[in-house]
Amino acid sequence: MSDLRSIVRGVGGYLPDRIVTNDELAKTIDTSDEWIQQRVGIKQRHIAAEGEFTSDLAVHAARRALDNARLSPDDIDLIIVGTTTPDYTYPATATLVQNKLGMHHGFAFDIQAVCSGFVYAMVTADSYLKNGMAKRALVIGAETNSRILDWTDRTTCVLFGDGAGAVVVELGGDGERGILASSLRSDGHFWDKLYVDGGPSTTQTVGHVHMEGKEVFRHAVGKITDVVENVLSRTGYTVKDLDWFVPHQANLRIIQGAGEKLHIPPEKVIVTVDRHANTSAASVPLALTEAVTDGRIKRGDLVMIEAMGGGFTWGASLIRW
What we know:
Layout: E1 5-14, E2 18-21, H1 22-25, H2 33-40, E3 44-47, H3 54-69, E4 78-82, H4 93-100, E5 107-111, H5 117-130, E6 136-144, E7 162-172, E8 178-186, E9 194-196, E10 209-211, H6 213-235, E11 244-247, H7 252-262, H8 273-276, H9 283-293, E12 302-309, E13 313-320
Parallel strand pairs: 4-5, 4-6, 11-12
Antiparallel strand pairs: 1-7, 2-3, 6-7, 8-13, 9-10, 12-13
């Protein structure tokens, strides 16, 4: 194992052009802008165009991350895509991204941990880099959630959006920078609290999202707090040391609840759910990209990322930017 750390070299995000507001949804289902904002804090979401696939979103984000890092696909030897909405059952969406980037070297694969997919992918890339299996990785979260929604179900269709975010990670020795510690968890006992009712082996269909919202909310704050506190305890840092908290953007009330329980001031919490909705595995890298681009997250900052998704899966990573 290497003593070096996995450092974030670049970030990039992509959101489809089409924006669907709450008012637009209210024309087709029994809902309102006020109802949605009060319950989840969402004002709008982006929806992929016809013929625009998860791999396309991922490639846009990947290219922007590479540009931000001043690198090219030739400099990458590992691609991991966190997604629950792949282009196909197989091959992996990551291999399609690899091909669209013009790469014929290295290796690529997907991770399916639903909304925790990007955090799981970051931890996996960190392990591969430290074990010498790769030198530099593209870690991507990309989703076309709109393809698995029942647009007549107001309890789920208002919550999700499409998008992609990417980071370039490489092994480096620049002082304290890099991924300092991570924690991953899952508990399949809760699988039916948030799931899609389709699949190749069960129904031979794609299916739609189903969720017990109150149950998910009840578990979310506690599980998020658990992994964040675990990561901090292993590094010797405290919540007061954090410069930024970048949570999964599922629900503003969950974000606020976790922040309050952890005693993180609201001004240190990155929030994009109001404009992006829940982009599942894409939400954390999209939030990171926005905060880096607008200058909030700066080199040397201590950043905590976390997510929780169906399964249940949940996890967190502490990064010195």
